[in-house]
């Protein structure tokens, strides 16, 4: 159980206590809690009608006796990767205060990283759980697409978005999944997992941090459509987010998000269809790469997260999801665990599993986690 009572600056947009005396959590502000506004971090929704009912995932965790301590802050309209929010404030990254907390589930990641709650619920449309998890030095899971009901989440319609958990370690992710998903059953490995490393181009600091982890893999492969899938994911999220939020009063939306909505409104139906075709081809490619192994591993981020000062340039931020966003398009479950560079900066390992095999993915993460710790302390030789 979490023992700390202090939430970092701007981690929450509302603080309250709801539920039993079980594990504590916070819920991202785009997920409905009855009687409360799902403001999505935006002035444009601050005066919206309160939710009439709990989201299905909220109902699920409350039925398990959990204790919700608040609604977590987020990047406005879940349409950004920095977590910087001029309206609700920017959550303070507990481990690297000068760096972005990540987005869009910034407050959820920050609350867990600070030790204030046992776990948190976020959403991931293009890396929005996994990227802030690594920015803040914790674990995060994007489940298989459709695994956890999105009923009661904003936007209501998405072909990419997944609800998932943050926790401080792999065991916490597994425990959170048992609370969030009534169908989830933890599993045990019967043998050391067969890992396949996906070869990617990343920054030298990331390469050096990931290299010992990659050595745990039996072999390596490439996903030739990875970069195309990243671009296709950007196309789909742009079009779908514009469709969801273009009706809002745009003058009440922050400049960064307003600009992206305007761009999304210009995406053609043909471009979306082409992006979805890339997604289908990429999903088949991932399935093929998983043949003969239990999971794929690759760096979570291609570079270390930028400082808050560096993040004012969008070009330094959107490429952070190059290795994350493609698996929203394919739908495969993907879990991240934190590591650090030689300079002590945040980096991470992403583990990708078979569709709907989320329990095995969590078990593999539990197997891998102590080996990451040993590698970090140079106790593991192979």
From TrEMBL:
Q: Which family does it belong to?
A: Belongs to the amidase family.
Q: Which PROSITE patterns match?
A: AMIDASES
GO terms, molecular function:
catalytic activity
Q: Which PANTHER family match?
A: GLUTAMYL-TRNA(GLN) AMIDOTRANSFERASE SUBUNIT A, MITOCHONDRIAL (PTHR11895:SF7), TRANSAMIDASE (PTHR11895)
The domain of life is Bacteria
Q: In this record, what's one Pfam family?
A: Amidase
Q: What is this protein called?
A: Amidase
Where is the Amidase domain positioned along the sequence? 25-180, 235-362
Coiled coil location: none
């Amino acid at each position: 159980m979490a023992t700390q009572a202090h939430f970092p600056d701007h981690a929450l947009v509302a603080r309250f206590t709801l539920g039993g005396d079980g594990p504590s959590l916070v819920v991202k502000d785009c997920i409905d809690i009855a009687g409360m506004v799902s403001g999505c971090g935006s002035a444009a929704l601050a005066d919206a009608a309160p939710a009439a009912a709990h989201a299905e995932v909220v109902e699920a965790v409350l039925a398990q006796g959990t204790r919700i301590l608040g609604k977590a802050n987020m990047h406005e309209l879940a349409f950004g990767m920095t977590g910087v929010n001029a309206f609700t404030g920017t959550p303070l990254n507990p481990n690297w205060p000068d760096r972005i907390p990540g987005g869009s589930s910034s407050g959820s990641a920050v609350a867990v990283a600070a030790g204030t709650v046992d776990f948190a619920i976020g959403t991931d449309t293009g890396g929005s759980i996994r990227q802030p998890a690594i920015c803040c030095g914790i674990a995060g899971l994007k489940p298989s697409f459709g695994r956890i009901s999105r009923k009661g989440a904003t936007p209501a319609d998405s072909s990419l978005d997944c609800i998932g958990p943050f926790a401080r370690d792999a065991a916490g992710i597994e425990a959170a999944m048992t609370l969030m998903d009534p169908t989830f059953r933890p599993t045990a490995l019967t043998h050391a997992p067969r890992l396949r490393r996906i070869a990617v181009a990343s920054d030298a600091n990331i390469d050096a941090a990931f290299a010992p982890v990659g050595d745990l893999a039996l072999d390596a492969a490439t996903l030739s459509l990875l970069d195309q899938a990243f671009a296709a994911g950007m196309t789909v999220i742009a079009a779908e987010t514009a469709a969801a939020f273009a009706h809002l009063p745009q003058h009440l939306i922050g400049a960064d998000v307003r600009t992206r909505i305007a761009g999304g409104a210009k995406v053609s139906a043909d471009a979306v269809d082409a992006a979805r075709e890339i997604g289908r081809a990429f999903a088949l490619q991932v399935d093929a790469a998983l043949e003969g192994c239990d999971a794929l591993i690759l760096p979570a981020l291609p570079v270390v997260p930028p400082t808050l000062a560096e993040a004012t340039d969008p070009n330094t931020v959107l490429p952070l999801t190059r290795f994350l966003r493609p698996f929203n398009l394919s739908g495969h479950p993907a879990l991240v665990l934190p590591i650090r560079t030689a300079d002590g900066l945040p980096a991470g390992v992403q583990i990708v599993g078979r569709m709907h095999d989320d329990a095995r993915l969590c078990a593999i993460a539990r197997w891998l986690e102590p080996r990451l710790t040993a590698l970090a302390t140079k106790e593991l030789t192979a």
